[in-house]
Amino acid sequence: MLTLRKLCHRRAVRRPVIEESEHVSQNRNKPILRIYVGQHCWSCEEAVRLADEVKKIFSSLSVELIDLDAKECRNVDDVFSVPTYVLNGRTISLGNPTREELFAKVSASLV
Q1: Which domains does the chain show, CATH number per domain?
Q2: Alpha carbons 45 and 39: distance in angstroms, whole number
Q3: Which of 26, 33, 37, 107 could form a disulfide with 44 if both were Cys (CB 3.0 to 4.6 A apart)?
Q4: What is the pLDDT of residues 14-72, one digit of tens each?
């Protein structure tokens, strides 16, 4: 579940920032999709949209949206570019995948 702590305003875009405690999933038995974004990233708006879609469709998946530009965020997966999608500790996409590609990878991990 995404926990909204503050909204970052830049170029009239609102992005949620998760609490640092959310970086380590509360539900260790659930698969985890971490999506790393940045305030400077113009294509991260699509990553936020995809995060919302995945969260709605895959209720058994923990989705974490991490803004690397926020001071209090830790880069637990050593991500170096945004957007980056990390599923269960494994990078599955550098840049935004298509909706179909992302859903296929998430579905395969839940089997």
Answers
A1: 7-20+28-109 (3.40.30.10)
A2: 9
A3: 37
A4: 444 444 334 444 556 789 999 999 999 999 999 999 999 999 999 999 999 999 998 88
Q: Report the DSSP beta bridge partners of residue 53.
A: none
How far is CA 49 from each of CA 16, 24, 26, 76, 108, rounded to the nearest angstrom? Answer: 11, 22, 23, 22, 21
Q: What is the pLDDT of residue 27?
A: 53
The residue length of the chain stands at 111
What angle (nearest 5°) sits at the alpha carbon of residue 45, between those of residues 103 and 10? 160
Neighbours of 17 (CB within 10 A): 23
For the chain, give the longest Cα–Cα distance: 40
CA distance 84 to 26: 21
